[in-house]
Design a protein that fits this description.
- By secondary structure, this protein is α+β, with helices and mostly antiparallel strands.
- It has two helices and six strands.
- The strands form two sheets. Strands 3-5-6-4 form a four-stranded mixed sheet.
- The protein is elongated.
- It starts with a strand and ends with a helix.
C-alpha cells in the first residue's frame, strides 16, 4: 500500500485517490459542502485555508492545506521511488 503525506503528518492511501483538485470552482465547492452535510468530508487543514481537495474512491472528500501541485508531486516522487526500488 502506497501512502502519501497531505500535510501536518496526515497520510492517505495514494491508491484510493481519484482526483486532486483546487477548491476554487463552484462545482468543487458544492462537492465539499455535500460531503460535509453527509459526514464524508475529512478536514486535514488544521484550521488553515483549504488549498487542495482529494476525491477518494470511497466517496470521502479530504481537505488539505497544501497545494494540489505539491500533493501530486509527492505522489509522483513516491511512484518514482517505487519504480527505482523495483529495478534493483
Amino acid at each position: 500500500m502506497q501512502l502519501i503525506n497531505i500535510g501536518f503528518g496526515n497520510i492517505v492511501s495514494a491508491n484510493r485517490i481519484i482526483a486532486i483538485v483546487s477548491p476554487e470552482s463552484a462545482p468543487i465547492k458544492r462537492i465539499v459542502q455535500e460531503a460535509k452535510d453527509d459526514g464524508t468530508a475529512i478536514d486535514a487543514t488544521y484550521g488553515r485555508k483549504t488549498r487542495a481537495v482529494l476525491i477518494m474512491d470511497s466517496g470521502h472528500v479530504v481537505l488539505s492545506s497544501i497545494q494540489p501541485e505539491t500533493v501530486a508531486g509527492r505522489l509522483e516522487k513516491d511512484e518514482d521511488d517505487i519504480s527505482t526500488q523495483d529495478e534493483k
